[in-house]
Amino acid sequence: MHRHRYRRDKVSVISGISVSPRRQRLGLYCHFYLDNIGHLEVREFLRHLLRQLRGPIIALLDNSRTHKGGPLDALRSRHPRLRIEHFPSYAPELNPDEGVWSLAKGELANGRPDDIDELMADLAASLERIRRSPAKLRGCIIGSDLPPFLR
């Protein structure tokens, strides 16, 4: 007899691709959470980007409620080099980060982690392989429907 464990453990991830304006260098930044992502987690992710990246930062975010509101307004007022722009309503084809998740899901599709720790390790390894591949990251940007001047 084969037993199944039905658990609703989950991993939530916030991620983004960075493109340096001068050298066109690419980066992938991710934060993992064991619960839902809300305003505070988005703010923390953006604060991390502010520590890691120099110069002006333009964050392109979808229209999720977690990407709007007081915590982000306060962060923008304290950090004038951060600018937040939102994609039009339901426009995943414009978001290069969707390509990252397509690649990661393709890698993980046939996996069967035994627990949340193994799931997180598999996911982290997949994202690290994507992060280390400028060709994959550039493909995510080129594969989006962003206007050419933003690619």
Give short descriptive properties of this protein.
40% helix, two-stranded parallel sheet, 4 strands, Nucleotidyltransferase, domain 5, two-stranded antiparallel ribbon, 151 residues, alpha+beta
Structure description:
Helix content is about 40%, strand content about 15%. By secondary structure, it is of the alpha+beta class. It has a single domain, classed as Nucleotidyltransferase, domain 5 (2-Layer Sandwich). Strands 1-2 form a two-stranded antiparallel ribbon. A two-stranded parallel sheet has the order 3-4. Helix 2 links the parallel strand 3 and strand 4 (about 80-85). It is globular, with a radius of gyration of 17 Å.
Radius of gyration: 17 Å
The CATH superfamily is Ribonuclease H-like superfamily/Ribonuclease H
Quick one: CATH class? Alpha Beta
- Give the averaged pLDDT, no decimals: 89
How does the major sheet shape up?
2 strands, antiparallel
- At CATH's second level, what is the architecture? 2-Layer Sandwich
Number of helices: 5
Strand order of the largest sheet: 1-2
Strand content: 15-25%
Low-confidence stretches: none
Total domains: 1
* SSE string, helices as H and strands as E: EEHEHEHHH
Distance between the termini: 53 Å
Count the beta strands. 4
Question: How are the SSEs ordered, and which strands pair?
Answer:
Layout: E1 12-19, E2 26-33, H1 39-52, E3 57-61, H2 70-78, E4 82-86, H3 97-108, H4 116-131, H5 134-142
Parallel strand pairs: 3-4
Antiparallel strand pairs: 1-2
Helix pairs in contact: 1-2, 3-4, 3-5
